[in-house]
Amino acid sequence: MVQAVSKLLTFDEFLEQYPEDGGNYELRQGRIVAMRPTGLHEQVAALIARKIDVEIERLSLPYFIPRTCLVKPYQQGEGYLPDIIVLDKQTVVEDPYWKKKSSISIGKSAKLIVEVVSTNWQDDYLTKLAEYEKFGIPEYWIVDYKALGGTRYIGSPKIPTVWIYELAEDEYKEGKTFTGCDSIESPTFPELKLTVDQLVKAGT
């Protein structure tokens, strides 16, 4: 007996079929995938968002952090739900996906994306790094607070590391790494006061 193969979804079909159960989902290779972060993962993301929000408010910047926002990359059959995304109020209104679907399809709609690393670390270090670069996200953080990434990235013995990539002429410059008591240096928020140790503590 031949088993029917389920149809792979486009991003628009994904939005139409997005489960209304309160969960978080991404589109990966045309299939809906549930995103189930741990509580510690959420604590780390919450600390970063809180610190960035302070800077947005303090400097009266035209940015905001939405509760959820899906990203439609150039890769077909993909749709990402970043742990944190900072949107630009002045440009996101031009994005055809924003008002109706709380999603973006234009890189300039965002100023910064943060991904907090989980066990599927290859997604953040490889897949999303490449896709966010092509999409034109100006700044991308990989927050590996549990040192889950491969040794070719964070060395041996592994230590918690934050990577920051900045877009220049449509390509990410070599990522800057921060560890231990290093203060994270964000091009978008140069006066941000946050260390890697603080993130590690938030995730314990």
Question: What would the keywords be for this entry?
Answer:
two-stranded antiparallel ribbon, globular, 7-stranded mixed β-sheet, 24% strand, alpha+beta
Helical proportion, percent range: 25-40%
Distance between the termini: 51 Å
The tally of strands reads 11
Order of helices and strands: HEEHEEEHHEEHEHEEEH
| SS strand fraction | 15-25%
Total DSSP helices = 7
The rounded Rg comes to: 17 Å
Structure description:
With 204 residues, the chain is α+β, with helices and mostly antiparallel strands. The protein has 7 helices and 11 strands. The chain has helices spanning 11-17, 39-58, 89-92, 98-101, 121-135, 151-154, 196-202; strands at 24-28, 31-35, 63-64, 70-71, 84-88, 103-104, 110-116, 139-144, 161-168, 171-172, 176-179. The strands form 3 sheets. Strands 3, 5, 7, 8, 9, 10 and 11 form a 7-stranded mixed β-sheet that branches. The protein has a two-stranded antiparallel ribbon with strand order 1-2. Strand 9 (161-168) and strand 10 (171-172) form a beta hairpin. The chain is globular and about 45 Å long. 32% of the residues are buried.
Helices and strands, with pairings:
Layout: H1 11-17, E1 24-28, E2 31-35, H2 39-58, E3 63-64, E4 70-71, E5 84-88, H3 89-92, H4 98-101, E6 103-104, E7 110-116, H5 121-135, E8 139-144, H6 151-154, E9 161-168, E10 171-172, E11 176-179, H7 196-202
Parallel strand pairs: 4-6, 7-8
Antiparallel strand pairs: 1-2, 3-5, 5-7, 8-9, 9-10, 9-11
